[in-house]
Write a structure and sequence with these properties.
This protein is mostly beta strands. The protein has a single domain, classed as Lipocalin, CATH 2.40.128. It has 1 helix and 11 strands, in the order H-E-E-E-E-E-E-E-E-E-E-E. The radius of gyration is 20 Å and the shape is globular.
């Protein structure tokens, strides 16, 4: 009986140590809140058709399990494209409104600076991407594969620099 109690106590101590030392879901050293602006020179699409003059600004606000995302694409200044949503970070699909290509968003936090982001249409993944923030919070890189409105897929890498 005493041996069983010692084994249970040892197991509990190991679990507490593992949880206390697990950095995977740790809070980032630097907040990811703020405005990020696209860096055209460091971005590309695998089909070679990355838009000249690409201009996308993203405002992000993070809480423990939520992202507020507000983006404005002014590559064509006469017709800015807006994309706004709120999503949880628990890999559960949530609604995306006012978007013809997607109606769901799923975000899963992988570590303090990395997220998996899936944009879906009725459960079908249209864009699968990873977002990675630099440890100093000065850059955000999004890379993945997406299906364009014409039905053709392409890989992409989009680089953003922190504006504020």
């Amino acid at each position: 009986m005493m041996k069983l109690a010692k084994t249970a106590a040892m197991g509990a101590a190991m679990m507490i140590a593992a949880v206390a030392c697990a950095p995977a879901m740790a809070k980032p050293a630097v907040s990811h809140d703020g405005k990020y602006v696209s860096n055209e020179a460091k971005s590309f699409w695998s089909n070679g058709e990355f838009p000249k003059g690409f201009k996308l600004s993203i405002d992000l606000k993070w809480t423990a399990n939520k992202l507020e995302y507000h983006a404005v694409n002014t590559t064509n200044p006469a017709k800015p494209y807006l994309n706004n949503f709120e999503a949880t970070l628990d890999d559960v699909a949530g609604p995306l409104h006012e978007n013809a290509r997607f109606n769901e968003i799923r975000i899963k936090k992988l570590d303090a600076d990395t997220y998996q982001v899936l944009e879906q249409k009725d459960g079908d993944v249209i864009v699968g991407q990873y977002w990675r923030f630099s440890p100093d919070g000065k850059t955000l890189v999004r890379w993945g594969v997406g299906k364009a409105p014409d039905g053709k897929s392409k890989a992409f890498l989009e680089w953003f620099d922190r504006a504020q």
